[in-house]
Amino acid sequence: MICFPNAKINLGLNIVSKRDDGYHNLETVFYPIMIKDALEIIETPNLEKDIFVESGIKTGTTAENNLVMKALHLIRSHYSIPPVEVHLLKQIPFGAGIGGGSSDAAFMLKLINSKYSLGASSNELAGMASQLGADCPFFIYNKPMFATGIGEKLEEVEVSFENYYLILVKPEIFVSTKDAFASIEPKQPDMSLKEIIKHPIENWKNLMVNDFEKSIFPKYPMIEHIKQKLYALGAVYASMSGSGSSVYGIFNKKTDLKHHFDGCFVWEQE
Ligand SMILES: C[C@@](CO)(OP(=O)(O)O)[C@H](O)COP(=O)(O)OP(=O)(O)OC[C@H]1O[C@@H](n2ccc(N)nc2=O)[C@H](O)[C@@H]1O
Ligand SMILES: Nc1ncnc2c1ncn2[C@@H]1O[C@H](COP(=O)(O)OP(=O)(O)O)[C@@H](O)[C@H]1O
C-alpha cells in the first residue's frame, strides 16, 4: 500500500509567546502544496522486525530516528501491527520550512490506519500526530487551516490560489527549526492572521509577516535576496515559509521563472 505525503507552506507566521515547556505559541495558516514524497508499506510474511529503506534525497536519518518509523512505533503502542517493510522515497527538501518530515509521519499514521482497518478517527490520529511534531496534526487533515497553540489547534479556513500561480524556491541552505525559534522575541500580532487572510492577496504584502524573517534574513542574506527577486519578477506576495529556507511567490499568471534561480530547488504549481 502506497501514499504520497505532500509539503505545506505557511501563510504568515506570528510567534506570540514562549511557553514554560520551551515551545512557542504561534499563529499561522498552513496551506498544502503538492511537492510529494512516496511512502510504501509492504507486508512480508515471517518478518521478525521492521525494515526501513530510504531513497531519493539523503536526510541522514536512520530506522531509529526517521519520523515515519517513530510514527509506526507510536501507532503500534495503541494497536497490534505486525512487522512491516517501509520504503520512503524522499523528494521534499528538508530543513526547508515545508514540513516534509512531519508530513511523512502523519501519512504513516493514516496509511497504517487504512491498511489494518483500525477505524481511528482523524481526531485520534491528530492526537497521536501531535506527539511526533508540532506541524504533524495539520497533515492528518491536509487542507488550509488556521493554526494556534504550538500548531496543533486547527480551524479550517477558506483560502485558494486557484487563479494564481505559486512558485517555491529553496537555496542550498538548511535551517534547524529549533535554532530558528531560539533567536525569536515573541510578540502579539497587531492584527490576527485569521482577519488578514480574508483580505485580497494583493493586500497581504502590507499586512502579513513571517516573524522568522527578521532573524533568519541577516544570518542568510541569500534567502532575503530570493524574496526580493520574486517581488522584482512581479510576485503579488512573497514570503519565507516556516523557519526557512524556502521562499514562495504568488503570481497573477504563469511565467517561466525557473532559470532565475540557478543552484536552487525550484517547484512550480502545475
Ligand atoms: C516552524 C514551523 C512552522 O510551521 O515549521 P517548519 O519551519 O519546521 O516547517 C513549525 O512550528 C515547526 O513544527 P515542527 O517542525 O513539527 O516542530 P517540532 O519538531 O515539534 O519542534 C522542533 C523544535 O522547534 C521548537 N518549536 C517548535 C514548534 C513550536 N510551536 N515552538 C517551538 O519552540 C522547539 O524547540 C522544538 O524542539
Ligand atoms: N521522514 C523524514 N523526512 C525528512 N526529515 C526527517 C524525517 N525524519 C526525520 N527527519 C529529520 O527532521 C529534520 C527536519 O526535517 P523536515 O521536517 O523535513 O524539515 P522542515 O519542516 O524544517 O523543512 C531533518 O533534518 C531530519 O534530520
TrEMBL record:
Enzyme Commission no: 2.7.1.148
Reported function: Catalyzes the phosphorylation of the position 2 hydroxy group of 4-diphosphocytidyl-2C-methyl-D-erythritol.
Protein name per the record: 4-diphosphocytidyl-2-C-methyl-D-erythritol kinase
Domain spans labelled GHMP kinase C-terminal: 193-256
Annotated family: Belongs to the GHMP kinase family. IspE subfamily.
Pfam families according to UniProt: GHMP_kinases_C (PF08544), GHMP_kinases_N (PF00288)
Enzyme class (EC, first level): transferase
GO molecular function, one term: ATP binding
Stretches that traverse the bilayer: none
Binding site for ATP: 93-103
Known catalytic reactions: 4-CDP-2-C-methyl-D-erythritol + ATP = 4-CDP-2-C-methyl-D-erythritol 2-phosphate + ADP + H(+)
Record-linked HAMAP family: IspE
Positions of the GHMP kinase N-terminal domain: 66-142
Catalytic residues of the enzyme: 8, 135
Keywords: ATP-binding, Isoprene biosynthesis, Kinase, Nucleotide-binding, Transferase
Keyword Cell inner membrane appears in the UniProt entry: no
InterPro entries: GHMP_kinase_C_dom, GHMP_kinase_C_sf, GHMP_kinase_N_dom, IspE, Ribosomal_Su5_D2-typ_SF, Ribsml_uS5_D2-typ_fold_subgr
